[in-house]
Amino acid sequence: MKLHWSPKSPYVRKVMVCAHELNIVDKIERVRSVAAMLKPNPAIMKDNPLSKIPTLVLDDGRALFDSDVICEYLNEQAGGALFPQAVKDRWPSRRWHAFGDGLLEVLVLWRNERDREQPLEPLMHAFEVKTFASLDQLEREVPALQAAPYSIGHIAIGCALGYMDYRFDTLGWRARAPQLAAWFETIVQRSSFRQTEPVDG
Fold first, then answer.
1. What value does the CA radius of gyration of the chain take, rounded to a whole number of Å?
2. DSSP conformation class of 116
């Protein structure tokens, strides 16, 4: 399998965390790919016309995207348990997965707007409000996260918080959500997270 990959993408990180958790990293060839919003990448577009990463190209030439689909595919191929099937665990896990991805989307859009020459202040404020509300909600859910079996939901939320550290290091989110911060510190001690920390360059 071939993965269009970048060490800075939080969505790629989610895929790679899953690959490490499932012990199938050695089955994935990583291809360094730049997916800039304003400059479609022809190399990626051969496999994904949306010019987005992560994109996973299977051995038979078929391509899978986006990160949700790729993670579920890897889990199925490896016979993993990152996508719980028991009803009591399935829907909390899927909800946390959506929550983590949704928070990531807000953060990515916030960063893009922040980096514009003239950021739109009402939009910047909206992103801040959504982020802080998400942190407040997750802070309340820490006991449930701790009690639930480790799953794709934990990975998605962990990647979102990791991206917050990487791109919003002055936000001071830990002071706002101390229980969530403590939970996050246990997550990032996992080998899968240590080996996928975002890096520049």
1. 17
2. S
